[in-house]
C-alpha cells in the first residue's frame, strides 16, 4: 500500500515538476468531447486559475472550469475542463487538455471537515484532487488527500 502511495505521489509530482520528456504528453479528451452543453451548465461554470511551480520551466498555467453543483445527486451533472500550459519549457510541450466528471469527497487525512473535488478525466489522464479552501480558492492535494508541503504555491483562484 505504501508503494502505491509513493508511486501515485511521484506521478503527480512529475506532472507538477514539468518533467515532460518530449512533446508527446498524453492528452485527455478536449473540450469538444464534453457532453455538458445545456444553458444551465453554462451558467453554473466556475473558473479557477493559477500558476503551479515547475522545475524545468517558469510555471504551469492551470485553468480549471467546474460545471454543475456539488450538491447534484447525479455525478454526470458535474463536468470539468482542465488546461495545463507549460510556460517557457525548453522542450515546448503542447498544452494538455482534459475533460470529464468531478465528484465531491468529504474529509481529508488532517481535516475531516474538508471538501475535496475529485476530477476524473474521460479516457486517459490522471485523476486530480483539489481541496476547496473557500469559495474562491482551490488547492491541489495528493491522491491520499494530504496537503503538499508547498501548498500555498499549489492554489488556484476563482475568476469573477
Please state the oligomeric state of the protein chains shown.
single chain
Strand order across the biggest sheet?
1-2-3-4-5-6-7-8
Low-confidence stretches: 1-42
Q: In terms of structural class, how would the helical and strand content be classed?
A: mainly beta
Order of helices and strands: HHEEEEEEEE
Terminus-to-terminus distance: 41 Å
**Global Rg:** 15 Å
CATH class: Mainly Beta
Total number of helices: 2
- Proper CATH architecture: Beta Barrel
How is the CATH topology named? Lipocalin
For the sheet with most strands, the description reads:
8 strands, antiparallel, barrel
Got a strand count? 8
Helix fraction, binned, reads: 10-25%
| β-sheet strand percentage | 35-45%
How many domain modules? 1
Please specify the SSE layout and strand pairing:
Elements: H1 2-17, H2 39-43, E1 46-52, E2 59-67, E3 79-87, E4 96-106, E5 115-121, E6 128-134, E7 137-141, E8 155-158
Antiparallel strand pairs: 1-2, 1-8, 2-3, 3-4, 4-5, 5-6, 6-7, 7-8
Structure report:
With 160 residues, the protein is mainly beta. The protein has one domain (2-158): Lipocalin (Beta Barrel). It is built from two helices and eight strands. It has helices at 2-17, 39-43; strands at 46-52, 59-67, 79-87, 96-106, 115-121, 128-134, 137-141, 155-158. Strands 1-2-3-4-5-6-7-8 form an eight-stranded antiparallel β-barrel. The model is unreliable at 1-42 (pLDDT under 50). Residues 22-44 are annotated as: Disordered. InterPro entries: Cu-R_lipoprotein_NlpE. It holds the Pfam family NlpE.
Amino acid at each position: 500500500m505504501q508503494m502505491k502511495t509513493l508511486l501515485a505521489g511521484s506521478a503527480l509530482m512529475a506532472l507538477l515538476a514539468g518533467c515532460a520528456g518530449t512533446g508527446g504528453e498524453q492528452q485527455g479528451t478536449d473540450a469538444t468531447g464534453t457532453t455538458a452543453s445545456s444553458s444551465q451548465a453554462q451558467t453554473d461554470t466556475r473558473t479557477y486559475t493559477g500558476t503551479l511551480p515547475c522545475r524545468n520551466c517558469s510555471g504551469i498555467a492551470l485553468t480549471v472550469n467546474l460545471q454543475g453543483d456539488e450538491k447534484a445527486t447525479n455525478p454526470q451533472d458535474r463536468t470539468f475542463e482542465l488546461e495545463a500550459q507549460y510556460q517557457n519549457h525548453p522542450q515546448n510541450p503542447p498544452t494538455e487538455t482534459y475533460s470529464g466528471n468531478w465528484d465531491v469527497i468529504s474529509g481529508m487525512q488532517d481535516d475531516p471537515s474538508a471538501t475535496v473535488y475529485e476530477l476524473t478525466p474521460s479516457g486517459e489522464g490522471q485523476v486530480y484532487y483539489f481541496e476547496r479552501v473557500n469559495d474562491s480558492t482551490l488547492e491541489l492535494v495528493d491522491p491520499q488527500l494530504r496537503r503538499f508541503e508547498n501548498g500555498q504555491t499549489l492554489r488556484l483562484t476563482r475568476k469573477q
